[in-house]
Design goal:
CATH architecture of the largest domain: 2-Layer Sandwich
CATH class of the largest domain: Alpha Beta
Strand content: 15-25%
Strand order of the largest sheet: 8-9-10-7-11-12-13-14
Number of helices: 13
CATH superfamily of the largest domain: Dihydrodipicolinate Reductase, domain 2
Helix content: 25-40%
Shape: globular
């Protein structure tokens, strides 16, 4: 009965979808002569499942492989995937992604690991002949991020980065109907912010890793810290060893969205200040207070995060605000507001599509307001696996946004302003600053080898 209901659901809800989807999952299969895309997922935690299950919703893919260093998490994901895909088959389960990729039988690989594990699996996946969806930020240092671009191009693979603001329906509308329509006029200042209390305040003591977690493999190329229960699952972002703090997590989304809307490339220079100003007791080593400026010609994009206190605008605690000569545009994952200097204001809320996808209502930990954006991002990826074009969040765009945020953190840590030249081979240089350039690649823990953009 459930299968019949699901089929009826697909037929009813996909008639109004994009031309690519036509009449639902079956139309996607027809485009490949009835062949399904074979999919694997590396990293079966919170967002790995969110990404995978949105892909399952929009196309008749077959999820054949799952990989995670946490055996409990892996088994749970296998059972959940079987319950949601049409075949009802439990995927093959792997602890080591290298074993999964050895099969060389995957059309698409999703990567939703902690940030320090984005680069190597993505590079190995394209070498194995797969197209890739990799979560943001692309990497934890600028050079490994550049190597990801080089690998995608060398092996001719489509790589979509999980900066899904570019596929968020109400933000696409804001870009087209407000920004591109010229309703803001000239834009000379953008404020981006996050005031969520998302920095861990825990003070847990170090301990022994749980038996179901291969902590050495989880750590991989990152520095090996004593195991702390804060890091797994989900709170690993509290440590710079595994990610890039709130800038790498939240700024990268808003910065990427603004670049997309305004058609911006690399900043002329990047500066940042901040630190741990309030919460000095936590084990977390990421900043709780930070500002960063991404400078362009006649335009500054200014980021602020503060993991304490209240937001200046309670409706836009994580947002970007575009200031133009003709008005102001506030943008978030939940809504947008256009406030013109003259005329009527425009307000739009996100549409969660719960009627079309009722399973979203009960899926554990799913950000329901983000699900439509993930589905749109997956459709765009799939479309480009056919055309072999560049998706909306192509790896190069993800690299620009991610590397700029990485350099904002480096600027904060060093007190330097980064004037980055991306065209200096093989991975760019900080102009007239050899010491800063040396920071663009951080050491890898042996036996893992840092990827080289010139030799991927």
């Amino acid at each position: 009965m459930r299968l019949i209901m699901l089929r009826r659901h697909f037929l009813q809800t996909t008639a109004a979808a994009a031309p690519f989807i036509l009449s639902g999952r079956s139309a996607f299969a027809d485009e490949f002569g009835g062949m399904k895309k074979r999919v694997g997922l590396i990293g079966t935690g919170w967002y790995g499942k969110a990404d995978l299950l949105r892909l399952v919703q929009v196309a008749p893919v077959e999820v054949v492989s799952l990989c995670d260093v946490d055996s409990v998490m892996l088994k749970e994901a296998g059972d959940l995937t079987a319950s949601r895909q049409l075949s009802k088959k439990i995927p093959r389960l792997y602890q080591d992604y290298r074993e999964m990729l050895k099969e060389k039988d995957l059309d698409i690989v999703l990567i939703a690991t902690p940030d320090h594990w984005h680069a190597l699996p993505m590079i190995d996946a394209v070498k194995a002949g797969a197209d890739v969806y990799v979560q943001k930020p692309t990497g934890v240092d600028v050079v490994e991020s550049a190597a990801m671009v080089a690998a995608a191009r060398k092996y001719g693979r489509v790589v979509q980065v999980g900066t899904q603001r570019r596929s968020t329906p109400h933000l696409i509308e804001a870009m087209n109907d407000i920004v591109k329509a010229g309703k803001l006029g000239k834009i000379s200042h953008v404020e981006m912010c996050c005031y969520y209390h998302m920095r861990s305040r825990r003070t847990d003591a170090d301990t022994t890793p749980p038996a179901h977690l291969d902590y050495d493999l989880w750590t991989g190329p990152a520095p090996l810290r004593p195991y702390n229960p804060i890091v797994h699952p989900r709170s690993w972002r509290a440590f710079m060893e595994y990610g890039n703090g709130i800038v790498g997590d939240m700024c990268v989304h808003m910065f990427d969205m603004v670049r997309w809307m305004l058609d911006l490339g690399w900043p002329k220079h990047i500066s940042s200040e901040g630190g741990i100003f309030m919460d000095k007791a936590s084990r977390a080593n990421i900043t709780d207070t930070q500002t960063a400026t991404f400078a362009y010609d006649d335009l500054n994009l200014v980021w602020t995060h503060r993991a304490w206190g209240s937001a200046p605008d309670s409706k836009y605690p994580w947002a970007a605000v575009l200031y133009g000569e003709k008005g102001t545009l506030k943008l978030s994952v939940n809504s947008y507001d256009f406030i013109p200097a003259k005329g009527e204001a425009i307000h739009r809320d996100c549409v969660m599509e719960l009627d079309q996808y009722p399973e979203d209502q009960t899926e554990k930990d799913l950000e329901k307001h983000v699900a439509p954006a993930i589905r749109g991002h997956m459709k765009d990826l799939l479309r480009n696996t056919v055309t072999r074009g560049k998706p909306v969040a192509d790896i190069e765009q993800g690299h620009i946004s991610s590397a700029s945020c990485i350099m904002a953190n480096l600027a904060q840590q060093t007190g330097r302003t980064f004037h980055y030249d991306p065209n200096a081979a093989p991975a760019g240089v900080v102009k007239d600053d050899a010491a800063a350039t040396a920071l663009l690649a951080r050491p890898y823990r042996a036996p893992w080898v840092h990827p080289d953009p010139a030799a991927v």
